[in-house]
Amino acid sequence: MSGAIAWWNIRHTELGSSPAGLTLQKAYRLHSIGSKLREHSIKQVLSVLHSAGVEPLLVKGWAVARLYPEAGLRPYGDIDLVVRREQHALARETLRSVKVFHWVDLHEGAGSLDKRPIEDLYARSRIVELDDVAVRVLAPEDHLRLLCVHMLRHSVHRPLWLCDIAASLESRAENFDWDICLGKDKARANWVTCAIGLAHRLLGAEVGGTPLASNAMKLPQWLISDVLKQWETPYSMSQAPVTHHAPMAKYIRHPRGVLADLKRRWPNPIEATVYTGGRLNELPRLPFQIGECVGRTAMFIARLPRALREGR
Length: 312
Fold this sequence. Notes:
By secondary structure, the chain is mostly helical.
């Protein structure tokens, strides 16, 4: 998915006309066409929701792609929308009447993406235009924080997510409010700082002049090593839960292969730290990984009776 960005950086060099460069150019052209198709779907979806009296927040995807020099440089899949809880049922019912080629990921409140109160996010949000359709997006401070936390929750396995953070960081206005972005939660502020530090260390994003510059430059060495290890296979098919061979409940009746699958489920140290609410520092990650295993096991046991009753 980063082929378009790679071609953009070599397009005026000799590499741009090389066989590899021409392959990257094809990716750029494909993503440019795809971005127009997705923008059409977004306009369809938002127009229908607006007509029903629902005004969602559009996050990730197009909301960050618009920060790039060209939208085609940042391909995306789902259309991620956040709506107030009291409007979720109406939004879901309304979307059933819309026939679009792209999946709409409708979030009931922002709980799965951000811990800030939904009304605070709406109050700071702003309207931007996509042709003739008004799109409500998060304030830059809230969106940068969301991008950082989302990336770490998924172990930073996609390099493109780090490009999003760099684009958001370098396109911020002079009045960008770091107090809003970082917030009062020390653990989350640490996550945002480390995510921005990764963008600086691995992509060269400029962090000078920010209040977190010194901390962003002092990353735990294990964090950098783990991200680079993730990037050896930056594909969704190489990540959980796709790598899980079967739901754990299935092994209750058919235990063959359970040990191998448990090994595949051993949590990544970044994911485990965020899951348990810890900080990304030089301390060993094993306690956090064990903590995630315990937490997920407890949830599995709690859901198990119902799963067995339903035959799952």
